[in-house]
Amino acid sequence: MSLPSERQKRLITSRYRHEVSKLQSYRPASTITLEKAMASARPGVPLADGSFHEFDPWQLREMAGEIPRILWPLVNLPVTLTYERDSSGRAFFHVAGDIWQKRAVGLLLSGELTSEGRSELTVEEARLLLSKYRSLFFVSLRL
């Protein structure tokens, strides 16, 4: 089996960069606090490609019911989870954002507010959150 030529490497690299940029265009361009989302007639955020991602009102109300109102101005939506694999092949999700996103995730999973929150989730924990709050979470890949 022969090694790829320089031309083939350039084509593969070019294709890879194109696909990554397409994926990134669907990322949120900004976030909104839970407080502002709850007060909005059309809660959601703009995406990098210029389109608008609207939050599901039912999911938003469910999340707001789990998070004390005093914390609403501190929690930004959507919450981004980054899928990763470590060197041993173990899959997990990293909670992106500041400490308040991590605290909100911890609160949604355990019902308790902790100072550290949750910065790392198992696949099952992420699946639980995504099944209940699908429009309020974004998933990205660590490439």
Low-confidence stretches: none
Strand order of the largest sheet: 7-6-5-8
Number of domains: 1
Query: Please, what is the average pLDDT?
Result: 91
Helicity, as a percent range: 25-40%
Helix/strand structural class? alpha+beta
CA-atom Rg in angstroms: 18 Å
Main sheet overview: 4 strands, mixed
Number of helices: 5
Strand percentage:
15-25%
Terminus-to-terminus distance: 27 Å
Number of DSSP-assigned strands: 8
What is the chain-wise order of helices and strands? HEHEEHEEEHEHE
Envelope shape? globular
Account of the 3D structure:
With 143 residues, this protein is an alpha+beta fold. The chain has one domain (6-141). Helices cover 40% and strands 20% of the residues. It is built from 5 helices and 8 strands; from the N terminus they run αβαββαβββαβαβ. The chain has helices at residues 6-24, 34-39, 57-66, 99-110, 123-132, and strands at residues 32-33, 44-46, 52-54, 76-77, 79-85, 91-95, 120-121, 137-141. The protein has a 4-stranded mixed beta sheet with strand order 7-6-5-8. A hairpin with a 5-residue loop joins strand 2 (44-46) and strand 3 (52-54). The longest helix is centred in the N-terminal third of the chain and has 19 residues, at 6-24. The radius of gyration is 18 Å and the shape is globular. The two termini are 27 Å apart. The relative contact order is 0.15. The mean pLDDT is 91.
